[in-house]
Specification:
Layout lengths: L9 H16 L2 H4 L3 E7 L2 E6 L5 E6 L3 E6 L12 E8 L10 E8 L9 E6 L5 E7 L6 E5 L4 H9 L2 E7 L5 E7 L3 H10 L3
Antiparallel strand pairs: 1-2, 2-3, 3-5, 4-11, 5-6, 6-9, 7-8, 7-10, 8-9, 10-11
């Protein structure tokens, strides 16, 4: 593990992600807690948020973007303004179930309300296509939550790349490629903090 990747937008995205998690999924206790950087494995950074319902996250930024249709400012959706992450919610003494988790895609622009956000996993032994659901009314994030996220997380563990395709409000359609190197190791570390 090493130091954070140094993206100036990254910490703001992580804070916003934690807030969205609390608001969208009702984990209100998580939003008030402090988030701590744990380390990095491959392309994936690891963060832990303490509190009554601790959350543990792995997050990556895209390594490339391919614009499919564009009729707005090409700077929108730059690589440092986009991330893919998996977040786990820890259990409490009264909660005997396994930790819940979700996969999310966050972009610093508004996703088209009528568009699907698709994730395609390829390479390695993992593959498959998955849909994420918009986090209305925010429309800057899309999620796949527990237990429906299980297949996607399994594919992330064994694939070598993930391509997320989305359409922004205004017409741009773009695909963002994420490297999965280090995901399995980062996820294991994150889960160890949320038992």
């Amino acid at each position: 593990m090493g130091e954070p990747m140094g993206r100036n937008w990254g910490m703001r995205a992580i804070w916003l992600r934690g807030l969205l998690a609390a608001l969208v999924l009702g984990w209100a206790m998580a939003a008030a807690a402090e988030e701590k950087y744990v380390g990095i494995e491959g392309h994936w950074e690891i963060y832990v948020r303490s509190g009554s319902y601790g959350t543990c996250s792995v997050v990556a930024w895209p390594v490339s973007r391919r614009v499919i249709v564009e009729d707005i400012d090409p700077r929108v959706g730059e690589l440092d303004e986009v991330n893919l992450y998996v977040t786990y919610r820890g259990t409490t003494p009264r909660d005997r179930t396994d930790a819940e988790y979700y996969v999310g895609f966050l972009i610093d622009d508004y996703l088209d309300p009528g568009a699907k956000v698709e994730v395609e996993i390829g390479g390695g032994s993992g593959s498959g296509k998955f849909s994420l659901f918009l986090a209305e009314p925010y429309a800057k994030a899309a999620f796949r939550s527990f237990p429906d996220a299980q297949g996607l997380v399994d594919a992330l563990r064994t694939g070598s790349r993930a391509v997320v395709t989305s359409r922004l409000r205004g017409g741009m359609v773009a695909s963002y490629m994420f490297e999965l190197d280090g995901f399995a190791a980062a996820e294991k570390i994150a889960r160890s903090h949320c038992r």
